[in-house]
Write a structure and sequence with these properties.
The protein is built from 14 helices and 18 strands. The chain is an alpha+beta fold. α2 crosses α5, α2 packs antiparallel against α8 and α3 runs antiparallel to α4. It is rod-shaped, with a radius of gyration of 63 Å.
Length: 601
Amino acid sequence: MTKDVTPNRMRHALRRAWGRVRWRIAAIIVFTGTSTILIVCLAVAALNVVVRRESANVVEKQIQVLVQASRSVAPAILDYAGACTAPPENSVGLKPLLAYTDEAFPQAEAFLVVESPRGVQSVLPGSTRVFGKHPEWLPDTDFAGLVVDRGQLEIRNVLTRQRGSCKATATFTLPLGSELAKRLSSAASMAVTSVSPRPFRVHSPNQRVFRTIEGNFLPGMTRPAAVVLTVRNWETGAPEDWIAYSVRPSYSSTFEDMARLGSHLANWVWLLAALLFLVVLVNAAGVWMRIRLGSSIATAIDDLSRAARQIAGGNFAWRTPVRSKDQLGDLSCNFNEMAISLERLKKEEAAALRVESELQVARSVQEYLYPRVVPVLRGATVAGQTLAARTVGGDLYDFLDLGRERIGILCADVSGKGIPAALMMANLQAVARAHLREGGGGAGAPAGCLVEKLNQEIAGRFGDNRYATLFWAAYDAEKAVLTYVNAGNPSPILISAGGEMERLNSDGFPIGMFANARYTANDIRMQPGSRLVIFSDGLTDAQNAAGEDFGDERLIDCCRTIAPVIDAEGVAERLMQAVAEWSTGTEQFDDTTVVVVNVAA
């Protein structure tokens, strides 16, 4: 395991390095730039090869011109030589011909051999070279071309004619030496140098790849190009390739010669040169643009990555620099706008959290407004439960001690939801308790007086559109009598011991709407085993996922299914549970309150 840790880390580091866009862009630029450079180098190398080969070809063509020019020398010697027996120096025109030959062909030699019954003799003056028997491959008539004879390269023209009893053979030779090299240099406008003749072998043992590249493909190298000639071996007649001269390439002369090959001088050469320059310029511009674009993309990605890390760390004030006005700049601007929005949302979230924290405190405070201890009555139990639609609610229920086995039951539903409704609910409870302490709702006062005073206190205090539905009842446990006032609250349900249902209807207005409204109290006797269910409209208006209300009928059916032996607290829990199950999967939109008075059987 220890041995594999270092290679794994190296592979992981390489993957991470290659995964960065900057390195990928750099690799693309290197690959494309390298390919462009290779193409240019190959083009230059090919051009250099063409120039070197063309320089050698020019010299070869000049030599071929000399070969063609030498074809007329041997016939002229025979024409001007006269009869076989006549002295050649007496022949008309032979001396001027020889003089012209010496001037036109430097270091050239002319020979005339006559074969007669008297023997073989050389009849031209100054001829010291003796040719042996003609080789078998030589044609019977004449021959003109390049030959190699005992390692010496020559232009040789041989012509034989039969004249009566004698046969005359004229031979003209021009060695490929230094003098001819000067003439070739002048004619070809290039530096032609005579070298020691040697056979040309493509795969010679001393030839190496790098020397071949240096000698042929790299421009500016001083190594001259070899002039290779195809010659006849004088002894065998076999064609062989021999190196006769070396020439230093002349680029200007080569271009001029190539330009003259077309119908319009230099037009196509300059056109190709211009196209080549344009291609190089376009490739250079492309590489420059790729470098600029790659750098811009990599820089933008680095800036965005740095900004993303800052924002992920909670620094929403970080802004990425906008370096251009293109799509990358738009991306940076959009990222900054996103950061601004996130910063604003963070502030709003912080403010919302503060509000939520304050609402939780308000909810805790509101919990203390509901009865902390359930009153204990002789022969009866009371209980209540409430569930706010939001953090704090506007429903109120309270139990007030009226003395001598008497309690006051207050159930109210303030219009609206949230904090305004909660504040109005708290004020309503405070006002009710204050009036009870003053004796306005005491044992001997009519029940409607308290409701009327509450209406007068609430009307207009929280605005013209604020009101509350209210059910107020005073229960006397000794007499089992319930005195109540219903100010717009849903009619409570009274269930007798035998299961009969009765609604405690009332036509009173909700408090807070009309300051001069009058309210009338009603009395009802609670029989043993009876049960009174007081509730807010949030219970019957609760909806299920299909949008159906819980309704009065389901509430009545639910009340009938609750056993008579269950006390008030158990009844309240059963009803709240039934409504919660009905509205499962939906959002609660109204406060729900239930108060139960259960008289023992």
